[in-house]
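Could you show me just one protein sequence together with its fold in token form as a worked example?
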Amino acid sequence: MSPATTGAKQSGGRRRLVIEADGGSRGNPGVAGYGALVRDPETGRVLIEMAEPLGKQSNNVAEYSALLAGLRAVVDLDPSADVVARMDSKLVVEQMSGRWKIKHEDMRRLALEARDLCAEIGDAGGTVSFEWIPREKNKAADALSNDAMDGKSIHRVLHDEDADAAAAQSDSAASTTVSSGEGAAVAAHHKPLRLLLVQVPLVEAAVPRVVAAVLRLVGPHSEVVTSDEPLALEVARAVGAEVGSEPTVAGLWAGRAPGEDADETVRTAYRSLAARGGTVVAVTSRRGVLSVLTDVLETPGQRFWAIATAPGSLTAVEVWEDGSAAVAFTNRTEHLA
């Protein structure tokens, strides 16, 4: 038995579901929480209600956390559904539509998680769109978020139907779409990539600090790839043990190809990750880090070594749905001080 089977049908046979999500923070940052629900748009019935306290967080982190809860519920219910996520957060809707850049690190991580879930729904044959609604039309989710800020944790399944109908429905031709209620839809061509480049530290004593810094930036089940250099392997194995992923050891990330400028084997490995997407930690040499950076930035060959990076430093690259790439930060070393 599953609530997934309760939902309106489109002419193509897919179920329709609506996510209503809201987050709040009393103090911003302050006591925070989120509320989210999944609704059958045809009957108006609520299928799932969720609320969760978040401790001390910003309002925007709470809004993204509400969206993530709704998307995860849809993935559990029926990832082949056509989904509309309705929120009164203009920021989240515009950022998920790709029109507004995401500057804050915490929101960037949460947005990438949301895009991963949208891609998972798309891979299952469903679609996701985003719609901004006024606060007065988001009262149910707002009430749940206030419950969460009051310290209540809620997960209620309100309807339970026969799950066999869900298994009979599929439409593999659909693709993930994100849009706002005020603009045209934007097709998602592939899953976004968030790549955290870790330059191999010089000494073993630095490894725990490097690993701790990495774990502050990535979540569970992140992919880990590494060169075969001993300290690189030590970093990768420690990170992998914490995020629940077995590191992939690949000579492509060693940065030892002939020549003194960009290593094309590293660039090949990076482009392969960009095509697949996800969140990836890559432990590599200084030459490996620079090979990726100069590929993203299209730096002239004679300027290859002009970007400063230190042993044990962190650098982040993001590749968006349309294939465009950006450098989020370079040579982060505060964890080594």
Q: What stands out?
A: The first strand starts at residue 8 and ends at 9.
